Protein backbone atom coordinates (compact mmCIF):
# COMPACT_ATOMS: atom_id res chain seq x y z
CA UNK A 1 0.00 0.00 0.00
CA UNK A 2 2.88 2.34 0.77
CA UNK A 3 4.30 1.78 -2.76
CA UNK A 4 0.91 2.50 -4.35
CA UNK A 5 0.57 5.61 -2.21
CA UNK A 6 4.02 6.73 -3.33
CA UNK A 7 3.07 6.21 -6.98
CA UNK A 8 -0.13 8.18 -6.39
CA UNK A 9 1.89 11.01 -4.88
CA UNK A 10 4.08 10.96 -7.97
CA UNK A 11 0.98 11.12 -10.18
CA UNK A 12 -0.31 14.08 -8.22
CA UNK A 13 3.04 15.81 -8.66
CA UNK A 14 2.89 15.20 -12.43
CA UNK A 15 -0.59 16.71 -12.53
CA UNK A 16 0.52 19.76 -10.58
CA UNK A 17 3.57 20.25 -12.76
CA UNK A 18 1.78 20.86 -16.03
CA UNK A 19 2.95 24.47 -16.16
CA UNK A 20 6.65 23.78 -15.54
CA UNK A 21 8.01 21.29 -18.14
CA UNK A 22 11.19 20.67 -16.16
CA UNK A 23 9.29 19.89 -12.96
CA UNK A 24 6.86 17.71 -14.89
CA UNK A 25 9.79 15.78 -16.37
CA UNK A 26 11.29 15.26 -12.92
CA UNK A 27 7.99 13.91 -11.60
CA UNK A 28 7.67 11.69 -14.66
CA UNK A 29 11.07 10.19 -13.88
CA UNK A 30 10.03 9.61 -10.27
CA UNK A 31 6.89 7.82 -11.38
CA UNK A 32 8.88 5.73 -13.85
CA UNK A 33 11.33 4.73 -11.11
CA UNK A 34 8.47 3.62 -8.86
CA UNK A 35 6.77 1.56 -11.58
CA UNK A 36 10.10 0.13 -12.72
CA UNK A 37 10.79 -1.16 -9.23
CA UNK A 38 7.41 -2.85 -9.20
CA UNK A 39 7.95 -4.30 -12.68
CA UNK A 40 11.30 -5.92 -11.93
CA UNK A 41 10.20 -7.24 -8.52
CA UNK A 42 8.37 -10.06 -10.27
CA UNK A 43 11.25 -11.03 -12.57
CA UNK A 44 13.57 -13.94 -11.86
CA UNK A 45 16.82 -12.63 -13.41
CA UNK A 46 18.37 -16.10 -13.52
CA UNK A 47 15.43 -17.36 -15.56
CA UNK A 48 15.38 -14.24 -17.75
CA UNK A 49 18.90 -15.00 -19.02
CA UNK A 50 17.62 -18.22 -20.58
CA UNK A 51 14.68 -16.54 -22.35
CA UNK A 52 15.10 -15.26 -25.89
CA UNK A 53 15.39 -11.48 -26.02
CA UNK A 54 12.33 -10.96 -28.25
CA UNK A 55 10.15 -13.08 -25.95
CA UNK A 56 11.44 -11.33 -22.83
CA UNK A 57 10.83 -7.92 -24.37
CA UNK A 58 7.28 -8.91 -25.29
CA UNK A 59 6.52 -10.08 -21.74
CA UNK A 60 8.02 -6.93 -20.23
CA UNK A 61 5.99 -4.70 -22.54
CA UNK A 62 2.81 -6.51 -21.55
CA UNK A 63 3.61 -5.96 -17.86
CA UNK A 64 4.54 -2.31 -18.40
CA UNK A 65 1.31 -1.66 -20.27
CA UNK A 66 -0.70 -3.21 -17.46
CA UNK A 67 1.02 -1.12 -14.78
CA UNK A 68 0.84 2.13 -16.77
CA UNK A 69 -2.87 1.58 -17.44
CA UNK A 70 -3.48 2.23 -13.73
CA UNK A 71 -2.41 5.85 -14.33
CA UNK A 72 -3.74 6.46 -17.83
CA UNK A 73 -6.05 9.24 -16.61
CA UNK A 74 -3.02 11.20 -15.39
CA UNK A 75 -0.77 10.75 -18.45
CA UNK A 76 -1.22 11.83 -22.02
CA UNK A 77 -1.16 9.12 -24.66
CA UNK A 78 2.33 10.21 -25.72
CA UNK A 79 3.57 10.16 -22.12
CA UNK A 80 2.07 6.73 -21.52
CA UNK A 81 3.71 5.32 -24.65
CA UNK A 82 7.02 6.89 -23.67
CA UNK A 83 6.65 5.45 -20.17
CA UNK A 84 6.10 1.94 -21.55
CA UNK A 85 9.04 2.20 -23.97
CA UNK A 86 11.42 3.50 -21.32
CA UNK A 87 10.31 0.92 -18.75
CA UNK A 88 11.05 -1.90 -21.19
CA UNK A 89 14.38 -0.35 -22.14
CA UNK A 90 15.37 0.08 -18.49
CA UNK A 91 14.45 -3.49 -17.61
CA UNK A 92 16.22 -4.99 -20.63
CA UNK A 93 19.42 -3.40 -19.37
CA UNK A 94 20.18 -0.78 -22.03
CA UNK A 95 17.97 2.01 -20.73
CA UNK A 96 18.42 5.32 -22.57
CA UNK A 97 20.91 3.63 -24.91
CA UNK A 98 18.30 1.27 -26.33
CA UNK A 99 17.15 3.61 -29.14
CA UNK A 100 20.78 3.98 -30.24
CA UNK A 101 21.22 0.21 -30.29
CA UNK A 102 18.23 -0.03 -32.62
CA UNK A 103 19.58 2.63 -34.98
CA UNK A 104 21.40 0.89 -37.86
CA UNK A 105 23.32 4.07 -38.73
CA UNK A 106 25.14 4.10 -35.36
CA UNK A 107 28.48 2.27 -35.33
CA UNK A 108 29.82 3.41 -31.93
CA UNK A 109 28.17 4.59 -28.72
CA UNK A 110 30.45 6.53 -26.35
CA UNK A 111 29.31 7.57 -22.87
CA UNK A 112 31.42 9.97 -20.80
CA UNK A 113 29.39 10.24 -17.62
CA UNK A 114 25.62 10.62 -17.20
CA UNK A 115 25.27 13.85 -19.21
CA UNK A 116 27.54 13.17 -22.19
CA UNK A 117 26.65 10.60 -24.86
CA UNK A 118 28.24 10.58 -28.31
CA UNK A 119 27.65 8.34 -31.31
CA UNK A 120 29.55 7.70 -34.50
CA UNK A 121 27.63 7.80 -37.77
CA UNK A 122 29.39 7.44 -41.09
CA UNK A 123 32.78 7.78 -39.42
CA UNK A 124 31.89 11.10 -37.75
CA UNK A 125 31.35 11.61 -34.00
CA UNK A 126 28.30 13.63 -32.98
CA UNK A 127 26.72 14.47 -29.60
CA UNK A 128 23.25 13.24 -28.67
CA UNK A 129 20.62 14.71 -26.31
CA UNK A 130 20.49 11.44 -24.36
CA UNK A 131 21.15 11.73 -20.63
CA UNK A 132 20.97 9.50 -17.57
CA UNK A 133 19.30 10.61 -14.34
CA UNK A 134 22.62 10.55 -12.52
CA UNK A 135 25.77 8.46 -12.30
CA UNK A 136 24.06 5.82 -10.15
CA UNK A 137 21.53 5.33 -12.94
CA UNK A 138 24.33 4.97 -15.49
CA UNK A 139 26.28 2.50 -13.34
CA UNK A 140 23.10 0.50 -12.76
CA UNK A 141 22.56 0.25 -16.53
CA UNK A 142 26.19 -0.85 -17.02
CA UNK A 143 25.76 -3.57 -14.40
CA UNK A 144 22.60 -4.80 -16.08
CA UNK A 145 24.26 -4.89 -19.50
CA UNK A 146 27.20 -6.84 -18.10
CA UNK A 147 24.92 -9.12 -16.10
CA UNK A 148 22.96 -10.08 -19.21
CA UNK A 149 26.12 -11.70 -20.61
CA UNK A 150 27.25 -13.24 -17.34
CA UNK A 151 29.86 -10.60 -16.47
CA UNK A 152 30.29 -8.57 -13.31
CA UNK A 153 31.35 -4.98 -12.71
CA UNK A 154 31.54 -3.28 -9.30
CA UNK A 155 34.01 -1.35 -7.16
CA UNK A 156 36.15 -4.44 -6.60
CA UNK A 157 36.23 -5.11 -10.36
CA UNK A 158 35.59 -1.71 -11.96
CA UNK A 159 36.33 -2.61 -15.59
CA UNK A 160 34.61 -4.98 -17.98
CA UNK A 161 35.14 -5.98 -21.60
CA UNK A 162 32.47 -8.22 -23.06
CA UNK A 163 30.54 -9.26 -26.14
CA UNK A 164 26.82 -8.52 -26.02
CA UNK A 165 24.13 -10.89 -27.25
CA UNK A 166 23.84 -9.08 -30.60
CA UNK A 167 27.60 -9.27 -31.17
CA UNK A 168 28.35 -5.69 -30.11
CA UNK A 169 31.49 -5.13 -28.08
CA UNK A 170 31.17 -3.49 -24.65
CA UNK A 171 33.91 -1.80 -22.66
CA UNK A 172 33.04 -0.04 -19.42
CA UNK A 173 34.92 1.61 -16.55
CA UNK A 174 33.15 2.80 -13.40
CA UNK A 175 34.28 4.82 -10.36
CA UNK A 176 36.68 4.92 -8.63
CA UNK A 177 38.71 4.42 -11.83
CA UNK A 178 36.42 6.68 -13.88
CA UNK A 179 36.72 10.10 -12.28
CA UNK A 180 33.76 11.96 -13.82
CA UNK A 181 31.19 9.19 -14.00
CA UNK A 182 31.07 5.81 -15.68
CA UNK A 183 32.67 5.46 -19.11
CA UNK A 184 31.01 3.19 -21.66
CA UNK A 185 32.08 2.29 -25.19
CA UNK A 186 29.90 0.05 -27.35
CA UNK A 187 31.22 -0.94 -30.78
CA UNK A 188 28.39 -2.13 -32.98
CA UNK A 189 28.72 -4.25 -36.10
CA UNK A 190 26.48 -4.20 -39.11
CA UNK A 191 24.44 -7.35 -39.66
CA UNK A 192 24.84 -6.73 -43.39
CA UNK A 193 28.29 -7.86 -44.59
CA UNK A 194 30.31 -5.22 -46.40
CA UNK A 195 31.05 -5.98 -50.05
CA UNK A 196 33.75 -5.07 -52.52
CA UNK A 197 31.14 -3.09 -54.43
CA UNK A 198 30.36 -0.92 -51.42
CA UNK A 199 34.06 -0.21 -50.83
CA UNK A 200 34.42 0.90 -54.44
CA UNK A 201 31.27 3.04 -54.34
CA UNK A 202 32.47 4.82 -51.19
CA UNK A 203 35.88 5.41 -52.77
CA UNK A 204 37.60 3.28 -50.13
CA UNK A 205 39.56 1.27 -52.72
CA UNK A 206 39.78 0.62 -56.45
CA UNK A 207 38.53 -2.49 -58.26
CA UNK A 208 42.12 -3.44 -59.13
CA UNK A 209 43.26 -3.23 -55.49
CA UNK A 210 40.44 -5.47 -54.30
CA UNK A 211 40.91 -7.90 -57.18
CA UNK A 212 44.58 -8.21 -56.24
CA UNK A 213 43.80 -8.80 -52.54
CA UNK A 214 41.14 -11.40 -53.40
CA UNK A 215 43.70 -13.22 -55.56
CA UNK A 216 46.22 -13.14 -52.68
CA UNK A 217 43.66 -14.77 -50.38
CA UNK A 218 42.83 -17.47 -52.92
CA UNK A 219 46.56 -18.09 -53.51
CA UNK A 220 46.94 -18.74 -49.75
CA UNK A 221 49.24 -15.81 -49.09
CA UNK A 222 49.59 -14.58 -45.51
CA UNK A 223 48.06 -11.13 -45.06
CA UNK A 224 48.46 -8.64 -42.20
CA UNK A 225 46.00 -5.73 -41.99
CA UNK A 226 47.27 -2.70 -40.08
CA UNK A 227 45.63 0.52 -38.96
CA UNK A 228 44.52 2.60 -36.02
CA UNK A 229 41.53 2.16 -33.74
CA UNK A 230 38.27 2.33 -35.67
CA UNK A 231 40.01 2.43 -39.05
CA UNK A 232 38.16 -0.58 -40.43
CA UNK A 233 40.69 -3.38 -39.93
CA UNK A 234 38.14 -5.98 -38.85
CA UNK A 235 35.72 -4.86 -41.55
CA UNK A 236 38.37 -5.47 -44.22
CA UNK A 237 39.35 -8.78 -42.59
CA UNK A 238 35.72 -9.87 -42.84
CA UNK A 239 35.63 -8.90 -46.51
CA UNK A 240 38.85 -10.70 -47.43
CA UNK A 241 37.78 -13.80 -45.50
CA UNK A 242 34.83 -14.09 -47.87
CA UNK A 243 37.26 -15.08 -50.63
CA UNK A 244 38.40 -18.21 -48.79
CA UNK A 245 37.02 -21.29 -50.61
CA UNK A 246 34.01 -22.77 -48.83
CA UNK A 247 35.62 -26.23 -48.80
CA UNK A 248 38.31 -25.13 -46.33
CA UNK A 249 38.21 -25.50 -42.55
CA UNK A 250 38.85 -22.12 -40.92
CA UNK A 251 39.82 -21.56 -37.28
CA UNK A 252 39.22 -18.04 -35.93
CA UNK A 253 40.66 -16.69 -32.68
CA UNK A 254 39.47 -13.39 -31.21
CA UNK A 255 39.42 -11.48 -27.94
CA UNK A 256 35.84 -10.42 -28.70
CA UNK A 257 34.07 -12.22 -31.53
CA UNK A 258 33.62 -9.70 -34.36
CA UNK A 259 34.22 -11.79 -37.48
CA UNK A 260 31.17 -12.84 -39.48
CA UNK A 261 32.47 -15.54 -41.81
CA UNK A 262 29.91 -17.00 -44.18
CA UNK A 263 31.68 -20.29 -44.94
CA UNK A 264 30.07 -23.47 -43.58
CA UNK A 265 33.18 -24.93 -41.92
CA UNK A 266 34.34 -22.39 -39.33
CA UNK A 267 35.68 -23.16 -35.84
CA UNK A 268 35.17 -19.95 -33.84
CA UNK A 269 37.06 -19.43 -30.59
CA UNK A 270 37.11 -16.53 -28.14
CA UNK A 271 39.50 -15.75 -25.29
CA UNK A 272 38.37 -15.63 -21.68
CA UNK A 273 39.57 -13.34 -18.91
CA UNK A 274 40.34 -14.61 -15.43
CA UNK A 275 37.67 -14.61 -12.74
CA UNK A 276 37.82 -12.60 -9.52
CA UNK A 277 40.07 -15.25 -8.00
CA UNK A 278 42.52 -14.84 -10.89
CA UNK A 279 41.73 -18.22 -12.43
CA UNK A 280 40.28 -19.49 -15.67
CA UNK A 281 42.04 -17.19 -18.12
CA UNK A 282 42.38 -18.49 -21.68
CA UNK A 283 44.61 -16.35 -23.91
CA UNK A 284 44.93 -16.00 -27.67
CA UNK A 285 48.19 -17.91 -27.39
CA UNK A 286 46.42 -20.81 -25.66
CA UNK A 287 43.75 -20.91 -28.36
CA UNK A 288 46.28 -20.69 -31.18
CA UNK A 289 48.27 -23.62 -29.82
CA UNK A 290 45.03 -25.59 -29.54
CA UNK A 291 43.90 -24.56 -33.04
CA UNK A 292 46.98 -26.16 -34.55
CA UNK A 293 45.64 -29.52 -33.34
CA UNK A 294 42.25 -28.99 -34.98
CA UNK A 295 43.33 -29.70 -38.57
CA UNK A 296 42.68 -26.16 -39.82
CA UNK A 297 43.23 -25.22 -43.44
CA UNK A 298 43.58 -21.61 -42.35
CA UNK A 299 43.92 -19.72 -39.08
CA UNK A 300 42.59 -16.19 -38.70
CA UNK A 301 43.72 -14.16 -35.68
CA UNK A 302 41.36 -11.30 -34.98
CA UNK A 303 44.25 -9.16 -33.73
CA UNK A 304 47.93 -9.53 -32.83
CA UNK A 305 48.61 -7.62 -29.65
CA UNK A 306 50.82 -9.87 -27.52
CA UNK A 307 52.86 -13.04 -27.30
CA UNK A 308 50.57 -14.85 -29.74
CA UNK A 309 52.33 -12.94 -32.56
CA UNK A 310 55.33 -15.27 -32.23
CA UNK A 311 53.15 -18.39 -32.39
CA UNK A 312 51.27 -16.99 -35.38
CA UNK A 313 54.52 -16.50 -37.31
CA UNK A 314 55.61 -20.02 -36.37
CA UNK A 315 52.34 -21.43 -37.67
CA UNK A 316 52.62 -19.48 -40.93
CA UNK A 317 56.17 -20.75 -41.39
CA UNK A 318 55.29 -24.40 -40.77
CA UNK A 319 52.68 -25.14 -43.40
CA UNK A 320 49.65 -23.19 -42.13
CA UNK A 321 49.65 -20.66 -44.95
CA UNK A 322 46.76 -18.47 -46.01
CA UNK A 323 46.51 -16.93 -42.55
CA UNK A 324 45.30 -13.42 -41.80
CA UNK A 325 45.38 -11.07 -38.84
CA UNK A 326 45.25 -7.39 -37.87
CA UNK A 327 47.63 -5.19 -35.93
CA UNK A 328 47.59 -1.61 -34.63
CA UNK A 329 50.08 0.64 -36.40
CA UNK A 330 50.44 3.96 -38.19
CA UNK A 331 51.55 2.58 -41.55
CA UNK A 332 52.69 -0.63 -43.23
CA UNK A 333 56.36 -0.22 -42.26
CA UNK A 334 55.38 0.49 -38.66
CA UNK A 335 53.37 -2.75 -38.68
CA UNK A 336 56.64 -4.64 -39.22
CA UNK A 337 58.30 -2.80 -36.34
CA UNK A 338 55.36 -3.50 -34.04
CA UNK A 339 55.42 -7.17 -35.00
CA UNK A 340 59.14 -7.25 -34.18
CA UNK A 341 58.42 -5.79 -30.75
CA UNK A 342 55.62 -8.27 -29.98
CA UNK A 343 57.75 -11.25 -30.99
CA UNK A 344 60.77 -10.04 -29.02
CA UNK A 345 58.58 -9.64 -25.93
CA UNK A 346 57.35 -13.22 -26.30
CA UNK A 347 60.79 -14.73 -26.99
CA UNK A 348 63.38 -12.52 -25.30
CA UNK A 349 66.28 -14.84 -26.11
CA UNK A 350 65.82 -14.69 -29.90
CA UNK A 351 68.28 -12.52 -31.85
CA UNK A 352 66.74 -9.76 -33.93
CA UNK A 353 68.10 -11.16 -37.19
CA UNK A 354 66.17 -14.36 -36.56
CA UNK A 355 62.97 -12.43 -35.83
CA UNK A 356 63.43 -10.49 -39.07
CA UNK A 357 63.75 -13.72 -41.03
CA UNK A 358 60.66 -15.16 -39.37
CA UNK A 359 58.61 -12.08 -40.28
CA UNK A 360 59.91 -11.87 -43.84
CA UNK A 361 59.17 -15.51 -44.57
CA UNK A 362 55.77 -15.54 -42.85
CA UNK A 363 54.12 -12.26 -43.93
CA UNK A 364 53.56 -11.73 -47.65
CA UNK A 365 51.21 -8.76 -47.91
CA UNK A 366 50.50 -5.83 -45.56
CA UNK A 367 47.34 -3.77 -46.08
CA UNK A 368 47.10 -0.47 -44.21
CA UNK A 369 43.72 1.18 -43.62
CA UNK A 370 43.06 4.67 -42.28
CA UNK A 371 40.11 6.67 -41.07
CA UNK A 372 40.44 9.99 -42.87
CA UNK A 373 39.73 13.41 -41.25
CA UNK A 374 36.24 13.47 -42.75
CA UNK A 375 35.39 10.05 -41.31
CA UNK A 376 35.87 8.03 -44.51
CA UNK A 377 37.82 4.80 -44.25
CA UNK A 378 40.27 3.96 -47.02
CA UNK A 379 42.88 1.39 -47.96
CA UNK A 380 45.91 3.68 -48.17
CA UNK A 381 48.70 1.12 -48.65
CA UNK A 382 49.08 -2.35 -50.09
CA UNK A 383 52.68 -3.47 -49.59
CA UNK A 384 54.56 -6.65 -50.43
CA UNK A 385 57.21 -8.07 -48.09
CA UNK A 386 60.11 -9.26 -50.23
CA UNK A 387 62.78 -10.57 -47.86
CA UNK A 388 65.55 -9.41 -45.54
CA UNK A 389 68.52 -7.16 -46.25
CA UNK A 390 70.88 -7.03 -43.30
CA UNK A 391 68.91 -5.71 -40.33
CA UNK A 392 65.93 -4.60 -42.42
CA UNK A 393 62.81 -6.41 -43.59
CA UNK A 394 62.42 -5.40 -47.22
CA UNK A 395 59.05 -4.29 -48.53
CA UNK A 396 57.67 -2.09 -51.28
CA UNK A 397 54.35 -0.39 -51.89
CA UNK A 398 52.22 -1.73 -54.73
CA UNK A 399 49.26 0.64 -54.28
CA UNK A 400 48.86 3.80 -52.23
CA UNK A 401 46.28 6.52 -51.63
CA UNK A 402 47.71 10.02 -51.95
CA UNK A 403 45.66 12.71 -50.21
CA UNK A 404 45.67 16.11 -51.92
CA UNK A 405 43.27 18.03 -49.68
CA UNK A 406 39.69 18.23 -48.42
CA UNK A 407 36.58 19.69 -50.03
CA UNK A 408 34.21 22.27 -48.54
CA UNK A 409 32.25 19.55 -46.73
CA UNK A 410 35.37 18.10 -45.12
CA UNK A 411 35.58 15.05 -47.39
CA UNK A 412 39.04 13.84 -48.31
CA UNK A 413 40.30 14.56 -51.82
CA UNK A 414 43.04 12.47 -53.36
CA UNK A 415 43.94 9.69 -55.72
CA UNK A 416 44.76 5.99 -55.67
CA UNK A 417 48.05 5.17 -57.34
CA UNK A 418 49.66 1.98 -58.52
CA UNK A 419 53.37 2.44 -57.85
CA UNK A 420 54.59 0.76 -61.03
CA UNK A 421 56.29 -2.11 -59.18
CA UNK A 422 55.66 -5.63 -60.45
CA UNK A 423 54.93 -7.89 -57.43
CA UNK A 424 57.28 -10.77 -56.78
CA UNK A 425 54.21 -12.88 -55.97
CA UNK A 426 52.93 -12.70 -59.57
CA UNK A 427 54.14 -16.25 -60.30
CA UNK A 428 52.43 -17.58 -57.17
CA UNK A 429 49.20 -15.90 -58.17
CA UNK A 430 49.53 -17.38 -61.65
CA UNK A 431 49.96 -20.89 -60.26
CA UNK A 432 46.69 -20.35 -58.37
CA UNK A 433 44.98 -19.43 -61.63
CA UNK A 434 44.99 -15.67 -60.98
CA UNK A 435 46.50 -13.93 -63.98
CA UNK A 436 47.66 -10.32 -63.81
CA UNK A 437 49.56 -8.40 -66.45
CA UNK A 438 52.39 -6.02 -65.53
CA UNK A 439 50.24 -3.19 -66.90
CA UNK A 440 47.81 -3.72 -64.01
CA UNK A 441 50.41 -2.39 -61.61
CA UNK A 442 51.51 0.55 -63.75
CA UNK A 443 48.14 2.25 -63.91
CA UNK A 444 47.45 5.37 -61.89
CA UNK A 445 43.79 5.75 -61.01
CA UNK A 446 42.38 9.02 -59.71
CA UNK A 447 39.22 9.19 -57.66
CA UNK A 448 37.67 11.47 -60.27
CA UNK A 449 38.48 9.05 -63.12
CA UNK A 450 37.06 6.13 -61.19
CA UNK A 451 33.82 7.97 -60.41
CA UNK A 452 33.47 9.10 -64.02
CA UNK A 453 33.96 5.52 -65.18
CA UNK A 454 31.26 4.32 -62.78
CA UNK A 455 28.86 6.97 -64.09
CA UNK A 456 29.52 5.91 -67.68
CA UNK A 457 28.94 2.24 -66.80
CA UNK A 458 25.51 3.13 -65.46
UniProtKB/TrEMBL annotation:
GO terms for molecular function: ATP hydrolysis activity. Pfam families: T2SSE. InterPro entries: P-loop_NTPase, T2SS/T4SS_dom, T4SS_GSP_E_ATPase. Residues 92-377 form the Bacterial type II secretion system protein E domain. It comes from the Bacteria. PANTHER family: TWITCHING MOTILITY PROTEIN PILT, TYPE II_IV SECRETION SYSTEM ATPASE. Belongs to the GSP E family. This is Type II/IV secretion system protein, TadA subfamily protein. The lineage of its organism: Bacteria, Pseudomonadati, Planctomycetota, Planctomycetia, Pirellulales.
Amino acid sequence: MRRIASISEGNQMIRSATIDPEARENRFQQLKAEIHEKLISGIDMAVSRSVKEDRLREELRRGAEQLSRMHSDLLSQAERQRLIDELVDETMGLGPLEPLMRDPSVSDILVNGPDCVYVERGGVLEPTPIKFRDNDHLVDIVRKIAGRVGRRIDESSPMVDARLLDGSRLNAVIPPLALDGALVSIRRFSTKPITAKSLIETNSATPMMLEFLAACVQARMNILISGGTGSGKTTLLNLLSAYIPKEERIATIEDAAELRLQQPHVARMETRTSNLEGRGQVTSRDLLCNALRMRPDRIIMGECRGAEAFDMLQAMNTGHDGGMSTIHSNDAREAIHRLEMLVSMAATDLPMWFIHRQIASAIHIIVHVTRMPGGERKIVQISEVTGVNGETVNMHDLFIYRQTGVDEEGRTQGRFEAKGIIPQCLDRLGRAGKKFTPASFRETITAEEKLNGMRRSR
